[in-house]
Write a structure and sequence with these properties.
The protein folds into three domains: 93 residues, Udp-n-acetylmuramoylalanyl-d-glutamate--2,6- Diaminopimelate Ligase, Chain: A, domain 1 (3-Layer(aba) Sandwich), CATH 3.40.1390.10; 150 residues, UDP N-Acetylglucosamine Acyltransferase, domain 1 (3 Solenoid); 28 residues. It is 17% helix and 28% strand. The strands form six sheets. It has a twelve-stranded mixed beta sheet, covered by helices on one side. The protein is flat, with a radius of gyration of 27 Å.
């Protein structure tokens, strides 16, 4: 696989600055660039490397201004990071073409309906009345329960599990070990204080273009409604989404985020790693939570949150400056207290 800078620019709608015939055949980090590779500059922290990188072609934003000579050929695009993602997607299609066919070791119910050009790997299990769309990729040991409906071009990696009655849209990716539709955490104590299980009778609805990371768990709704991931949601690995949660379009969550039951999250929200939300609250569109932030109340206006309990990130950062000085301030207060006591003693004389 080899492309010229001009071919890359044409695919991305960009402009070449330098040798338009420069060839690339692989990708690299800008600080580790080698001849024949393509890299990119998006984060200003890495700007210094563009002057020393050995990469042959570098994607840069249209407004990038060079301060020194650059040996690499530049391809100017509107957004270099997004352009790189587009190129990687093209490369992936070349390097990892879709599989087709049903392995003889797959276990598929006679009532299941499999779309054209689908792939079902060995030891995958497909339950009764399941519908799987065209071009689906079901890898070995994946499990799909009864009455599940899966759209077109869905990928389920090994050991991904979808419980009964769940709905999955088009172009969804579910990584290894993820569980969709397991029971929500519902128990009620009886007269003797013994916790009795509350059956979870709902399901999970996953809309188009969602990606779910490895070992992430999404619980089914308890009785009515659904646990819903709307279009374009992206979940990292090791995330917990509890029953009856709704996650709005194009919201993203980093690893180990936890969302308690019946929480409603808006569109385009961003959650840092290990952040968490208590149940039964509403979070408005465009909310940002920093890593390890813990939210326990409704958010009605878009804001950035930080801390535990979470509050405005700007206030948290100012407060943290004071927090770091507390030992010194405590020492000063103790010294002042001693001085005051000494003054009181002199005055009483």
């Amino acid at each position: 696989m080899e492309f010229s800078a001009q071919q890359i620019a044409a695919a991305l709608g960009g402009q070449v600055e330098g040798n338009a015939e420069e060839k690339i055949s692989f990708f690299s980090k800008i600080e580790e660039g080698r001849p024949g590779s393509l890299t990119f500059l998006a984060n200003p922290k890495y700007k210094e490397y563009i002057y020393s990188t050995q990469a042959s072609v570098v994607l840069v934003n249209e407004d990038f201004v060079a301060e020194k000579p650059i040996s690499a050929t530049l391809v100017r695009v509107k957004n270099s990071y997004s352009a790189l993602a587009q190129l990687l997607s093209i490369a992936d299609q070349f390097m990892n073409p879709k599989k087709k066919g049903i392995d003889s070791l797959a276990c598929i119910s006679p009532s299941a309906k499999i779309g054209k050009d689908a792939y079902i790997g060995p030891f995958a299990v497909i339950g009764d009345n399941v519908t799987i769309g065209d071009g689906a990729q079901i890898y070995p040991h994946a499990y799909i329960g009864d009455n599940v409906k899966i759209g077109n071009n869905v990928t389920l990696y090994s050991h991904a599990t979808i419980y009964k009655n769940c709905l999955v849209g088009n172009n969804v990716i579910i990584h290894a070990g993820a569980v969709v539709g397991s029971d929500g955490f519902g128990f009620a104590p009886d007269a003797n204080g013994v916790y009795q299980k509350i059956p979870q009778l709902g399901n999970v609805v996953i809309e188009d273009d969602v990606e779910i990371g490895s070992n992430t768990c999404i619980d089914r709704s308890s009785m009515d409604g659904h646990t819903t991931l709307h279009k374009g949601v992206k979940l990292d690995n090791l995330i917990q989404i509890a029953h009856n949660v709704t996650v709005g379009e194009n919201t993203v969550m980093a690893a180990q985020t936890g969302i308690a039951g019946s929480t409603h999250i808006g569109k385009r929200c961003m959650f840092g790693g290990q952040s968490g939300i208590v149940g039964h609250i509403n979070v408005c569109d465009d909310t940002v939570m920093a890593a390890r932030a813990a939210l326990s109340s409704n958010i009605k206006e878009p804001t950035a949150l930080q801390g535990n309990p979470a509050f405005k990130a700007s206030q948290y950062q100012r407060s943290y400056v004071i927090f770091k000085k507390l030992p010194e301030m405590m020492k000063q207060m103790n010294e002042m207290a001693k001085e005051i006591e000494a003054l009181k003693a002199k005055l009483s004389e």
